[in-house]
Amino acid sequence: MEEIKKIADKLKISEEYINMYGKYKAKIDYNYIKELKDKKDGKLILVTSINPTPFGEGKTTQSIGLSMAMNKIGKETLVVLREPSLGPVFGIKGGAIGGGKSTVEPSEDINLHFTGDFHAISSANNLLCAIIDNHIYQGNTLNINKDKVLIKRVVDMNDRALRNITIGVGGKTNGIERNTGFEITSACELMAICDLCENEIDLKNRIDNMLIAYTNDEKPVYVKSLNCTNAMYALLKDVINPNLVQTVENNPCIMHLGPFANIAHGCNSLIATKMALKLSDYVVTEAGFGADLGAEKFFNIKCRIGNLKPDMAVIVATIKAMKYNAGIDLNLLDMENIEAIKKGICNLQKHIENVKKFGVPVVVCINRFDNDSESEINYVQEYLKKLGVKCEVSTAYKEGSNGAVNLAKMVCNTLDSESSNFKTLYKDNSSIKDKIETVSKKIYGANGVKYSNLANDKINSIEKFGFAKLPICIAKNPSSLSDDPKLLGRPTNFYINVKDIKVNSGAGFIVVYTGNIMTMPGLGKKCKYEEF
């Protein structure tokens, strides 16, 4: 690793805007973007993927590898990524710093406490929860209905035992008894607010406008009624400054915030992306899970709110994910199986079709593993060639930038030869149900949508209070295009089941909960914490 000051020098960031966190990490003052306002934006490249196996398919690895390779061939490129959550770090998936020879450093620091962003968000969120419960206990002058408090406490850990809890038990001195639960920090609205705000004033306004509860006579209650925004901001003032680290090949990397794509909008911060676009000719970024989740939300939520115009998308595909989408057992994914690929490649085809609906050029990156046979690779390449889709193999995991040079050249040639005609999938003034049904039918391939009575009631309430124009963030399992994780490949003749709705009025979107999705994951039978 090079000292972080040298990495900042490569981006020509003056020392007054760098706050060092030791020798190899720093925060960039978000105000630095004002110094760059006259610079032309670089080109924005989104890295997404097909529906993954439970272990992930290497989007971060390939994002890092692609950016390093583009730098190697003389294209000034900056990679912008999400921060890891401790839940997956100790759970099934592990860290979020890439892999092999395509990583960001200092990897252990990043995967654990990093610069404290997640801790600060957890503290500010839990301060708000404590204030709400204290307000109810101290006389409840706002007339809050204790059974209609919308904000939950959070912890940055997978802990299923906290999904449903009762607080305030043991007598009056311990507070008012009510049922609630915990969410993982990445799922909370405050994470999304920090992720989507543009500056300090915007952050405070968004916190002010968080809908936190309803009164006993069904009126909305917002954070601003509790006079705690400044206290929350005091905990968050450094969070909105993007983090600067480096790739294993000493290229700059901005890594900032990290909502999950299955239960939130799944992108790094808007401030980080906009700053990167001013600092470099090319910006490589990623969105979580498959394109049905991260990419759809990147396009429909982040680009809409931030007025971003992405120039192209790279869809990462692996041979094992195609086999997985054919229903092959996890323990058999490393065995050659052309027939399984023939069956599961329909999942990749659907994701290609979906991304093209947003008007951006598409390239497929095959993230090659040691167990992938030449026959399997050749079949996928020939299949995509018949579809008229560009495809390149990357071995960035094993070879770093050298393994992604051909992919980098293909990406650059595509940017030079094809123009983006980016468009969102639905209009602001479409109804909430129209938005849900548009994504469900056009992206997932569903026949339609079924709503629970609770969801219908919530939609009516959201429309009544004037939030209908907000974009939607569909919380859905990542394993399938449907809301049933067992329906792999390219399922047909299914419905999306909407069980609940929540308005994140501060973040600026409506969360739609489908199937059996949960905002607090659990640990698996075999987890990464055993490997520490």
Question: Would you write up a description of this structure?
Answer:
This protein has 532 residues and is α/β, with parallel strands linked by helices. The chain folds into three domains: 291 residues, P-loop containing nucleotide triphosphate hydrolases (Rossmann fold), CATH 3.40.50; 120 residues, Domain 2, N(10)-formyltetrahydrofolate synthetase (2-Layer Sandwich), CATH 3.30.1510.10; 81 residues, Formyltetrahydrofolate synthetase, domain 3 (Roll). The chain has 18 helices and 23 strands. Strands 1, 2, 3, 4, 5, 6, 14, 15, 16, 17, 18 and 19 form a twelve-stranded mixed beta sheet that branches. Strands 20-22-23-21 form a four-stranded mixed beta sheet. Strands 7-12-13 form a three-stranded antiparallel beta sheet, with helices on one face. Strand 18, helix 14 and strand 19 form a beta-alpha-beta unit.
Which helices and strands appear, and what pairs or packs with what?
Layout: H1 4-10, E1 18-20, E2 26-28, H2 32-35, E3 43-49, H3 59-72, E4 77-81, H4 86-90, E5 98-99, E6 102-105, H5 107-111, H6 117-137, E7 144-149, E8 153-155, E9 165-167, E10 178-180, E11 182-184, H7 189-196, H8 200-208, E12 211-215, E13 220-222, H9 229-236, E14 243-247, E15 252-255, H10 270-279, E16 282-286, H11 291-306, E17 312-317, H12 319-324, H13 338-356, E18 362-367, H14 374-387, E19 390-394, H15 396-399, H16 405-417, H17 432-444, E20 448-451, H18 453-464, E21 472-475, E22 495-504, E23 509-514
Parallel strand pairs: 3-16, 3-17, 4-15, 4-16, 8-11, 17-18, 18-19, 20-22, 21-23
Antiparallel strand pairs: 1-2, 2-14, 5-6, 6-14, 7-12, 9-10, 12-13, 14-15, 22-23
